[in-house]
Specification:
By secondary structure, this protein is mainly alpha-helical. It has one domain. The protein has a two-stranded antiparallel sheet with strand order 1-2. A hairpin with a 7-residue loop joins strand 1 and strand 2. Helix 1 runs antiparallel to helix 2, helix 1 runs antiparallel to helix 5 and helix 2 crosses helix 5. It starts with 12 loop residues before the first helix and ends with a helix.
Length: 144
């Protein structure tokens, strides 16, 4: 019986997306816990503006956090696949660099909102949780 394997350095889409989804679910649970802790510690809870330049604030919900986290993790999974197609065996190194840059750029969201620093910190922690989850999960799926 012969087995067909992908060429060295190539990534297949399905396992990467499964790993990304798993990382997204784990990160979503962790981020909802961060949100709940933030709501307990911050007077008035974690609130965000309704949009850029808006002065209207809305409570951040667990559903919003969960969906945003899962979408971000799935996008990271797609990035892993694309990077794997072009970077080959160096997919881990390139993915880590791209993820680090994306994480730094993502801080512009919470830090750019007109909300108290404590709320910006909670939102930024959620970004870090998501990044750590995908950086850990995606390379693991390549190790077998």
């Amino acid at each position: 019986m012969s087995t067909v394997t992908a060429p060295q350095g190539r990534t297949s889409a399905r396992p990467a997306l499964i790993a990304a989804a798993g990382a997204g679910v784990a990160a979503a649970i962790a981020n909802i816990a961060v949100l709940l802790a933030g709501n307990a510690l911050i007077d008035g809870g974690v609130r965000v503006t309704d949009g850029p330049g808006s002065s209207t604030y809305t409570d951040l919900t667990a559903g919003q956090v969960g969906i945003a986290t899962l979408v971000a993790a799935l996008l990271a999974g797609l990035a892993w696949i694309v990077i794997g197609r072009f970077a080959g065996a160096r997919v881990r190194v390139v993915f880590l660099a791209v993820t680090a840059v994306a994480l730094l750029l993502s801080f512009g969201g919470p830090l750019g909102l007109d909300i108290p620093g404590s709320q910006q910190l909670i939102l930024s922690v959620m970004h870090v949780v998501t990044a750590v989850a995908v950086v850990v999960a995606l390379p693991l799926r390549e190790r077998g």
